[in-house]
Write a structure and sequence with these properties.
105 residues, mainly alpha, 83% helix
């Protein structure tokens, strides 16, 4: 059960940080506000870092070495999870374009 919870947590974090574009929006807003380029610090702009720290907080409630191992195993695949989310978005877009083209004919 904890494996699926950590996997879902990492997937949501990867979506929010890497796919949704919220990090770029916040950085551009801060850059305009300060008048010079600025970047968010590492845990807030890195899906792997954020997944680890939030997952660690989650694991601390049911701490065991096995749960910590599961966390590190899932977090190290954050980049692949992001790639799967992007692939899924492209696939859905292609299917919707195909349906729209079919309906127009």
């Amino acid at each position: 059960m904890i494996f699926f919870n950590l996997l879902m947590l990492t997937t949501v974090i990867c979506f929010v940080i890497d796919v949704s574009g919220i990090v770029d929006s916040i950085e551009s807003m801060l850059s305009r506000w300060r008048g010079k380029p600025c970047r968010l610090i590492k845990p807030f702009s890195c899906s792997m870092c954020m997944s680890f720290w939030i997952g660690l907080i989650y694991v601390l409630f049911n701490f065991s070495l096995f749960n910590l191992f599961l966390l590190t195993l899932i977090v190290t695949n954050a980049e692949q999870i992001t790639n799967m989310l992007v692939l899924f978005r492209m696939l859905v877009s292609k299917v919707l374009d195909t349906i729209a083209t079919y309906v127009e004919k």
